[in-house]
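Are you able to produce any protein sequence you like plus the matching backbone structure tokens because I've never seen that pairing?
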Amino acid sequence: MFRKSLVIIMLLALVLTACTPARSEKQVVPESAPSEMFAGAPPSADVYQPSEGARAIQQQAGAISGVENPVERLVIRNANLSIVVKDPAEAMDQIISMAEGMGGFVVNSNLYQRRLPNGNLVLEGNVTVRVPALKLNEAMGQIKGLVDNPQTDILSENISGQDVTAEYTDLKSRLRNLEDAAEQLRKIMETATKTEDVLQVLNELRSVTEQIEVLKGQIKYYEESAAMSAISVNIQAQETVAPISVGGWKPEGVARDAIQALIDAYQTIASAVIWAVLFCLPIALPIGLVIFFIVRGFMRWRKRRKSDSSAAVAEKSE
């Protein structure tokens, strides 16, 4: 009997010893973590693998450091040009046709009249077009080909570039992470049983979806801006920059500037006189008359009072 009891005790001890490690292995997940959060999660072997967003960040980090998978630079190139032509309207039409022929489009255009100091009306305009970034130099060359003399009729030219690779890469990484989070939230919502949990996950999913749409809009803006370069052209008529003619002689440099400044000074003086006569004088005249009569009445009253005081003193002395 004693031997049978001893055997049973030894068997129980072995069973308890074998069960102890199994219990410790099951306690991998913290007790504080709610079971609903892992209802739609993949097996434990996949939980600890890096997600797609994490792998993308690692690849981009290695690319930026130059280790592997170099990232293609994303540069936004724009240009500004100011030219002088014989016919601004015709030049604007040619620029628009050129942009559309290259697969671009017109952003805005404006054609207007300007009155010169000599009273003549001339056309001026400005137009902004977008052309494929790879054809920016070709488009600039065609626009500059519209002038008669490139040395004098091209007033200004500027091409600027903005490297947005870092911002673009960051947006793409954030987008992947948010898309991963949205997918996990959808899986959790499918397995949730409580109404409160479903509503909470739905609100969080809605917030993540809004952030995804914002990031997609920013990414699209960068991609379109880098793919299509903007060219802003200011078009002037040759008559607007023609030198002043005085008796057949065309002064240049300082003499031209001095004559133009003198004309502007006379115009300013004439304008001031016109304003003084037509605007200031009708207002100032009644006010001045009122002030004049008030001062004159005060002086008369003071003089009369002084004379009365002198007469009173004279009577007392007698």
